[in-house]
From TrEMBL:
This is Flavin reductase family protein. Keywords: Flavoprotein, FMN. Belongs to the flavoredoxin family. Pfam families: Flavin_Reduct. The keyword Flavoprotein applies. Its cofactor is FMN. Residues 19-172 form the Flavin reductase like domain. InterPro entries: Flavin_Rdtase-like_dom (IPR002563), Split_barrel_FMN-bd (IPR012349). The keyword Flavoprotein applies. PANTHER family: FLAVIN REDUCTASE LIKE DOMAIN-CONTAINING PROTEIN, FLAVOPROTEIN OXYGENASE.
Amino acid sequence: MLFDFATLPRDKRAKLLLSTVVPRPIAWVTTQDEAGQLNAAPFSFFNLLSTEPPVLGLGIAPRGAGRKDTAANIRAGGEFVVNLVSAALAQPMNVTAVDFEAGTDELATAGLHPAASDTVAPPRIAETPVALECRVLSLTELPSGSLIVLGSILALHIDPARLLDAERCHVDTPSLDLIGRMHGAGWYAHTRPAGLFEMPRIQPAALAPAQTPGPR
Ligand SMILES: Cc1cc2nc3c(=O)[nH]c(=O)nc-3n(C[C@H](O)[C@H](O)[C@H](O)COP(=O)(O)O)c2cc1C
């Protein structure tokens, strides 16, 4: 069945996209307003887009006719931290998604603590296993008011207990126990070993002749 987005109402487009493009990693974004007030909120319109240079992308929807605090702070300050969400932090992450009044300290409300960043002004969330310090590379406002943020990743913090070999930058990724956003209003996915499988990349020489890609 084909759904043509040129004619489909926006709520139906959203339902289809949000329930099929899964799992989505969650960026738990910390920012500060001009007075230095800390803000935290989760965003699953998020992914790593490039390693050279290191760049990630975020999509922040408008709030009615206005802006979410995260979007306003990123526009004003140009810096933010993407904290990654372990399963143990799912509940506090959900608390910070509540539409609090601007100026509310969402971290304190969720029982979490800030830790100073090294290269940007907004702090990271001390309890998260990984945090990416970012500076705005580009901002694109879509006609709907959604803000597409590309961020240069300046530094990465990781809980040393999650490293297998710091010198070689080998991470014990399953031990991060990160979660992803699934469908509906409240489904999430684990990245636990039971759900993982390994599939090495294929070398062209290993393919049978009929499967070998020919010249185009
Ligand atoms: C898991 C999760 C993922 C979310 N992803 C997004 C997203 O990608 N874009 C968005 O605009 N809102 C997203 N939200 C909603 C925001 O977190 C919510 O609007 C929040 O109140 C924004 O806070 P702020 O005004 O402090 O920036 C998400 C909520 C949850 C729980």
